[in-house]
Amino acid sequence: MADLQTLAQAIHGCTDCGLARSRTQAVPGEGAPQARLMFIGEGPGFNEDQQGRPFIGPAGQFLDELLGSIGLARPDVFITNMVKCRPPNNRDPFPGEMEACSKHLDAQIEAIKPKVIVPLGRHALAKWFPGESIGKVRAKPRRFGGLTLFPLYHPAAALHNGALRSTILEDFAKLGDLLRAPEPAEQPPRDEAAPGPAEPSPESHQISMF
């Protein structure tokens, strides 16, 4: 398994889609190598393309504020995007561009092994739950394979619609609650010869992360 530095080098040298021709530089992402929490946005903007760092424009400033509201800072988490190069004029990434970049994101997830992945906005959500609305599934933990996802509105949404600011702050508070939830106690191995308690019904299953 490659480490994050090796993956970043591969991303900087990637030419697998047309975004490589228009970028100033790739933006692999940054943060803690073993972060419990991983944020995934859409793609780099102008400032990110210039400096090679994710979420450093106005949306990134709001993300910093949101992290602070639950007692975290950038060094505590890992922040990246669906595509690692800026789409021209900040347009939405094309499906082929996201597909070309998916191997880099998958490798980062495998290297970090975060406890919770936070898709920010509909494009990131669609990697795991295509066709679902971010407005309907936001701020609810979802399981996908061995991953726990907690979709949220992209911070940029509050820049375009100020009424969403309080909603996003409330949703982040729920993320903080999820992170603070105690881990379930480890159960001793069951004696297969002895009858055990009845399995809970699917309806009673709840996610408890920590």
General description of the model:
By secondary structure, this protein is of the alpha/beta class. It has one domain: Uracil-DNA glycosylase-like domain (Uracil-DNA Glycosylase, subunit E, 3-Layer(aba) Sandwich), CATH 3.40.470. 39% of the residues lie in helices and 10% in strands. The chain has helices spanning 4-12, 19-22, 46-51, 58-69, 95-112, 122-128, 134-137, 156-160, 164-180; strands spanning 30-31, 37-41, 78-81, 116-119, 142-144, 147-149. The strands form 2 sheets. The chain has a 4-stranded mixed sheet with strand order 1-3-2-4. The chain has a two-stranded antiparallel sheet with strand order 5-6. β5 and β6 (147-149) form a beta hairpin. α1 (4-12) runs antiparallel to α5 (95-112). The longest helix is centred in the middle third of the chain and has 18 residues, at 95-112. Mean pLDDT is 89; it is low at 186-210.
Shape: globular
**CATH fold title:** Uracil-DNA Glycosylase, subunit E
Beta-strand content estimate: 5-15%
- Which residue ranges are poorly predicted, with pLDDT under 50 across at least 5 consecutive positions? 186-210
Query: Would you list the SSEs in sequence order as H and E?
Result: HHEEHHEHEHHEEHH
Distance between the termini: 26 Å
